[in-house]
Specification:
This protein is an alpha+beta fold. The chain has helices spanning 7-12, 32-41, 61-68, 116-127, 151-166, 204-215, 225-234, 250-253, 269-272; strands at residues 16-20, 23-28, 43-47, 52-57, 81-87, 93-103, 106-111, 133-136, 141-147, 172-177, 180-185, 194-200, 220-222, 284-291, 302-304, 311-320, 327-334, 344-349, 352-359. It folds into 2 domains: 1-235 and 257-276, Gyrase A, domain 2 (2-Layer Sandwich), CATH 3.30.1360.120; 281-359, Beta Barrel (Elongation Factor Tu (Ef-tu), domain 3), CATH 2.40.30.110. It is globular, with a radius of gyration of 21 Å.
Length: 369
Amino acid sequence: MPTSPLDDLHRRRGAHMTDFAGWQLPLRFGSELAEHAAVRTAAGLFDLSHMAQLRVVGPGAGAGLDMALTGSHAGMPVGRASYSLILAADGGVVDDLIVYRLAGAEYLVISNAANRAVVAAELVDRLAPFDVDLVDVTQARTLIAVQGPRAAAICAAAGLAGVVESLSYYTAAPARLAGIDLLVARTGYTGEDGFEVSAPAEAAERVWVALEEAGRAHGLVLAGLAARDTLRLEAAMPLYGYELTRETTPWDAGLNRFVDLAKPAFVGRDALVSDDGTRVPRRRRLVGVAGSGRRGARGGYAVINPASGQTIGEVTSGALSPTLGYPIALAYIDAAAPSAVGTDLVIDVRGAHQPFSVVARPFYCRSPS
């Protein structure tokens, strides 16, 4: 089982470790609710070293990624990042990704840890006709995230002021910290401002400690997977294996804007478009729902039409929102079922029918800076 280059440090810090996607990672360092709250009000420090880091290098890198993925990447400016999807031929989602353009002929693809092998294999196969090489640098690198309203101040205090000031949302740039070459991106998975730092694995502890020490005056806490999950749920960000699966199409998940149908070809395109050029109708629809009680809906719970009593869908992710104080969930419901904001639904919570209603997503929006 692979371990993060920060594994020893986490254990010294008293982390409660867990198995996740074949890795040993911190579930929490103390209270997951306190970690969640700190990210919303100050900042949290996360180890994301399990995320796959795949470098795609060569003259055909942009064109190859355009064929392999749903987004348009050949025309991305250097320093830009883009959310994208890799689909199966039948239109099902193999994984969701972040693509960074590092140089004219060099990209970095970040994929989910559980899908690292399949994404790497698919990309090798799809990029074969292009003049490119794919190098899996996951275990040679670490990935550390600082997330929260104080993230920029913390990174600046750690010695990254220049790059922090230069970055807008979904951009990335090289930087140096204490002689260490880094890639710093203004991206994240919490619904807050934040930065993700890719560094050589051998320098992981030095980078982590530099950020940790810089954050002490700003309320930074060490945070684990539990808080990361409730944070991303409040931000209504999909999680592979829950909102996204091989049985899910981008249309089902409402990810239309990340599919460039103007491209003449990409893997999965034919399954998404009818012969007349229109989008194939979605089979189901991802919605956000909120309840008024204190009992959270969990993945797998049935969603019921209160008028007919018929089951019309299933919860994918749900929790009692730490920030909002009431239950929230993401759920798939039949495409033909009513789903407008304000629609009343019922969720079977361990045998009790609890009232929920469809609400706008995301559930939580950070205050404008």
